[in-house]
Specification:
alpha/beta, about 270 residues, about 35% helix, D-Maltodextrin-Binding Protein, domain 2, four-stranded mixed β-sheet
Amino acid sequence: MKKIAILALALVLALVPTLTLADETVRLGVTGAFYEDLWQPAIDKLAEEGIKVELVQFSDFSLPNNALNGGELEVNAFQHHAYFNNDTTTNGYDLQVLADTFVITMNLYSAKYPTVEELQAKVAAGEAVNVVIPNDATNQGRALLVLKDAGIIDLTDDYEGTPNTENVVQVEGGKVELTPVNAAQTYQFLEDSDAAVINGNYAASYGVDPASAIFQENVDLSDERFICLIAVRTADIDNPTYQRVAEVFRSDVTTQVVKEKFDGFFYLTWDNE
């Protein structure tokens, strides 16, 4: 009888994680319509396990961390480490990184110049050039690095983390004017500028082909700054449901949809672990 009781208890304990994960709704904050396609395979798989994931769309990068910190979300997945570190420190949010996900490219696009060499030639000729960049600190810094690598501007080397506009130096003869706008609006200024540096999530949301970029960002997965992440409140870092959400997303179901719909936009961290 004692042996039966022990076996019964062991069976109950084995079922506890499954019961804990069942019938829960996880509100997940994102920025951009493409996340609906990106997350759908994981959402479907999680639903089979009794975990309902509800995507909550935000129109601006400044909102999802505030919503997560305030309890309006359980999880968010929209930002890279550089943004997360700056935003949580600046605003005193009590958030933690649950898992790394991918690097989403930030590329240089132009509606006027089919190649970066043609844009470089205009800069070298001393003609006025207007380039649109994001206006938030971390995405702007990343955009400036893209422009430097593309040969459109130069930068001083006395910055920490990512540069800002004070670090911008004109290349010889250059007259490049930078126009900072909300990151979500960079694509909308493409037709009215010489070029624009556009976050991949917004480019994907507008159906932009990443191959149409006149310069593609040099992606380094050993550099944590621009690796995107899934975040939770610090108190929830060990929550098995949220850990399971991250685990399923970081799996073959997402790899497949990236290959089918978003090839060229994402570099998946779990492919290199």
